[in-house]
Amino acid sequence: MVVDDSGSGKTILVVDDEEHVVKLLSMNLTSRGYDCLCAYTGEEGLEQARSHHPDLIILDVMLPGIDGIEVCRLLKSDPRTQLIPVLMLSAKSEGIDKIHGLEGGADDYITKPFSLRELFLRVEASLRQIALLTGAWSGRPHMLFIGSLSIDTERYFASNGGEKIDLTPAEFKILNMLVKHQGEAVSRPLMYRELFDKDPADAGRSVDVHLRNIRKKLNDAGVTGCRIETVHGSGYRITPQP
């Protein structure tokens, strides 16, 4: 087996009840320089994530016991694990299953059967975006403001009046992009390409679902003085409000 170092020692947790899938992914992750953890149930996946804090989790939707969507919700509601990117695997191609996964906090999804090339492109994109958002801003202005909302791009932190707003990595990326371009329409294709390394044709309604989650979280946090608007036929923008 040829081993490369593209994984740079990053740890990835694979959670899937199909043993052949876990073995296939584990073997290929290892060959790319990743350290691999394996789990076969939702409960085992939660325990591994909380104990080892992997850099990324590949999580199947259909699991015995706690299903993947509920596992994702639990991970994203736990301060110890909420910033770990979650890539969901689904054997179902219906849009509703993808939407449920994204509503549960997943950062990306891929439908079985999948090509290993596509999977690893998604893995690399998620890890690259986390590195960018958590470590590439030193020495640059890192505070953005609109209304009562504050974005700290260096600490990967959104807040309202000093109170943290719990966002998934994907939600933070979208909100950060909107606030950086406040008052301007940001198109869906630009979000797909710049934030998720995806062709818009492959992204479905993922950004729309993320935006719905962001709006709810900002509202629940009591954010005032700004509003996210849908620009029909174009995308989204965030604007100051009196």
From TrEMBL:
Ranges for domain Response regulatory: 11-127
GO molecular function, a single term: transcription cis-regulatory region binding
GO BP annotations listed: regulation of DNA-templated transcription
Protein name: Two component transcriptional regulator, winged helix family
Modified positions (4-aspartylphosphate) in chain numbering: 60
Organism of provenance: Sediminispirochaeta smaragdinae (strain DSM 11293 / JCM 15392 / SEBR 4228)
Keywords from the UniProt entry: DNA-binding, Phosphoprotein, Transcription, Transcription regulation, Two-component regulatory system
DNA-binding region(s) in UniProt: 141-240
Domain OmpR/PhoB-type: 141-240
Pfam families in the record: Response_reg, Trans_reg_C
CDD domains (alphabetical): trans_reg_C (cd00383)
GO cellular component, one term: cytosol
